[in-house]
Amino acid sequence: MERLEIQRIEKEKWLQLEEKDLGRRNEELDELNLLEGCFPEAERLKHDTRLLSQWKHYIQCDGSPDPSISQEINTFISLWREETNETFEEVIAKSKLVLNLIEKLKLILLETPPYDLQDKNIIQYRGSILQLQELLQLKFNVATEILLRQASTLADLDSGNMEKIIRDENVTLYVWANLKKNPRYRSVRFSGTQIGFEIPRILATSDIALRLLHTHYDHVSPLHPVLTPVPKEERTSTVTELVRDEVKNVEEAISKEDQEETKQQESGSNIILEEEIKVEEQDDIEVQKSSVGEEHEPITCELEIKLLSKTVSTAQLLLIENAHEKPDTFEDNDVDLCQFTTLGGVYHLDILELPPQCKPVKGWMIVEILKEGLQKYTYPPETTEEFETENAFPPIEVTLEVHENVIFFEDPIVVRWDTEGKRWKTDGISKVSYNPEERLITFSLETFGPVTLIQDTHINMPYQSWELRPLGVNTVLLTVTTVFTEIQIQIKENLCMLASIKLRNKEHFSILEGKWMPPVPFIIALKAAGLNIFPTGHSHFYVVINHKVPLVEMKAYRQMALLSSAFAFGWSKWNLLCNSTKVVVKVREHLTKEPMNPDWDLLMFSGDRAQRLKIDEDSQTFSEALKEETEFHSTLYHMVKDFASEEAMEKVSSSDCQFIDCVCQMLLSTRLLSYS
Q1: DSSP labels for 126-162?
Q2: Residue 413: how many CB atoms within 10 A of its CB?
Q3: Which of 253, 313, 442, 486 could form a Cys-Cys staple with 502, CB 3.0–4.6 A?
Q4: What is the residue range of the signal peptide feature (predicted)?
Q5: CA–CA separation, 663 and 564 (whole Å)
Q6: Can you say how many angstroms the Cα of residue 457 is from the centroid of all Cα atoms in its chain?
């Protein structure tokens, strides 16, 4: 009986708290809506920044095209295509501008919200990217041919063969021309490096050249036809439809108010005498128009803000939605680019036919220029009947250097590009060995072509723990701990920086450390360095995750970002045990380097209700019981406000909108609540 009485009292208390929460819900939600006005404001500022960037480019007049304007980029491509006889060094110098244009176009596609991008613009930008990539590769091929025509004049005195290395920040060229055709010269090693080839006898006695063009970027993979169940175009159109509907509602509301006011004015005017109407009619109309316009301005502005707020939250929700279907795979040897990521650029390996050499004649240099241009040497040949030995065309041993700025947490996987199928494949490669100290990878390749190294995209997922804590005014530090590494990201105002990396509990230097970047370029740079802690819509097919309802997750990230300037948040083991409609996080006030109260509070949030939990991290079992003398709240923000100091809440209210938006974007991109 006593136990039942205790349960009855607890239930009664619970119902009273629920009733109290419902009574103030509208008030709390209205306050939260006002605070979350920072997100559409930040979006407006980003839009203005994009326009300012275009204007700055326009007034700069440096001769470079604006890649977003089709006429300018098409003119640039046409003019460069017409330029001939460019040396490799000249092409490399021009490639810096080309790569910058490609980067700008990619950023436009990634940074511009889906509701601001039209389908025709997406097609235009993607088309321009492909044209620039193809033309750049064509120019490298033509420049290689020009270089190989001079092979005899550049021959090494000792070996009699030509060897050339050209290094740049984006491209490295290794080229070797077989001028002597010595059957015993089978080991090709480029001076000052361990990079090279072990070639069979048939190549050692042929008029060939070997080229290794290492592009530190990957312009091959984007051609891969990734099948997505929810294409970006469809998602964009969904958001666009929402926007159009809201605009229609705005217009209808204004139109309705116009009609109502006109009716009121007409009915009121019937009382006035006809003579007075004739005299004052014109003045009345002018006054009415101006007063209606003045009243409509704040209404329209308010509706515009509401519209932008809705579209921003819809776009944020799309960032964390999971795809419903796994991408189709083609064959066993095909690489799934949703599961693996190419790292360190692409190694273009080619066996080329040696072009006719320059010949000095009476003070002139004469050279035969082949109409078909640079030709690839087919190895192995299509027909092998004329060759007696069975193993006349063995796989060629290749030794490559792994890019110094890329981190591989496991031995890299070597894959080759299938030109016909337009995809990366794992077959045709054998005897792979990797030396992590010297960063050298050796393997045997049956046929030459583009080669790259891949790593499991989700090697650092799920995360083991995470923490978000304030460092100062509009500055926080996000720490993500995985099986292999600990990554610290500093966020200050609207910029991000890699603060430190630890590999196996040891500090590891990265070229990205100390470089401040906006969120999207920062995420791209981290992924390119092998530090991928950014799940995609397909990641849940490859990682065991702690699934949470996207709307609940998004609301939690937005409110954590609002509070991040004065409160630290952290991973809780209980987040795994509550169901998918709720999230659990640790939180504590953090105004100084060493918080006054080192103990964490546990908060549970379901999207429309927040509560402090009675349990702590050391409790034996999970319980949703409320902490003594605490209440329910409709938002995470008001729950934290309940036990916060005035100083902390003042700091929260004075946070910059771009800082809050930047923190929210990093939380949405890392998805800490689902992937920990």
Answers
A1: HHHHHHHHHHHHHHHHHHHHHHHHTGGGGB-TTTSSE
A2: 19
A3: 486
A4: none
A5: 8
A6: 13
